[in-house]
Design brief:
The chain is mainly beta. Helices cover 10% and strands 33% of the residues. It has 3 helices and 13 strands; from the N terminus they run ββββαβαββαββββββ.
């Protein structure tokens, strides 16, 4: 988890936290999604008896937290936690590529801005902004391999003179070539976050198995035979 914070009282601050889950909520007059206490119990900083359980969930985090932990982490500037206090998380929008660069995030990840509102007695007094990592970053080599796996060049169609369907003749050269339209680059791209990797595959040589155990390699598609063409 990468955490960076710069908070001062009720002004907006920033916490960058790695996570894997997004909750689709929007800010309203009251929290659309809030974590709060229920029951008649009391929770205080001195470890008093707990009768009513209070739990909260941070977007993207698998654990649940007691509300006083959430409150102390995000809302301590509003004062000590009291039963009935609420902490709401509201999705704002995606983190833009320039912001990803500004905060030093992995550009292959996907991130979302959240507003965190601290509610007490029906009022949202403290607001904090956090960045939630929706999709973790991956090495560029992984993106490259995903793109490369989608490259499916068509099988080449060989051409010869004399034609393959005919018998060849002693002391008569056999010309070998491929359709030049086959001899062209292929490319495939894969995107992760703000990074797109494009793989370009270019033909470099053709190896011909002659049927008698020999092989001939041509560094190009070859040249189609025409009447009067030089043997070389």
């Amino acid at each position: 988890m990468r955490v960076r914070t710069n908070r001062s009282g009720p002004t907006n601050g920033l916490i960058l936290a790695a996570a894997v889950l997004v909750l689709s909520t929007l800010i309203s007059a009251r929290p659309a999604l809030a974590d709060h206490c229920s029951g008649d119990g009391q929770i205080d900083d001195r470890g008093g008896d707990v009768v009513g359980e209070c739990h909260g969930i941070v977007p993207g985090e698998p654990e649940t937290y007691t509300m006083n932990e959430l409150w102390d982490y995000y809302c301590a500037d509003a004062g000590p936690f009291r039963e009935g206090d609420e902490v709401g998380f509201y999705e704002v929008g995606p983190v833009e590529p320039d912001e990803i660069e500004l905060f030093g995030l992995d550009p292959t990840g996907v991130y979302v801005w959240y507003d965190v509102i601290c509610w007490r007695d029906g009022r949202g007094d403290i607001e904090v902004q956090i960045i939630v990592e929706v999709t973790p970053g991956v090495p560029p080599e992984v993106i490259r391999d995903i793109a490369a796996a989608r490259l499916e060049p068509p099988p080449p169609v060989p051409a010869t003179s004399p034609p393959l369907a005919n018998e060849t003749f002693v002391q008569v050269p056999t010309w070998l070539w491929l359709d030049p339209g086959y001899w062209s680059p292929l490319e495939a791209s894969e995107t992760r976050g703000a990074v797109t990797v494009t793989v370009l595959a270019t033909p470099t040589r053709a190896t011909w198995a002659m049927g008698d155990g020999r092989e001939t390699t041509c560094f190009g598609p070859g040249v189609a035979w025409t009447q009067g063409a030089a043997e070389d």
